[in-house]
Amino acid sequence: MPKSKPKRRSLASGSRRAPARTRQMNEGEGNRTAARNYDRAVAETVKSGTVPEKARAAARALDGAEGDELRRAEAQAKRGKTASGQSPLSK
Question: Residue 29: pLDDT band by 50, 70, 90 thresholds?
Answer without folding.
Answer: confident
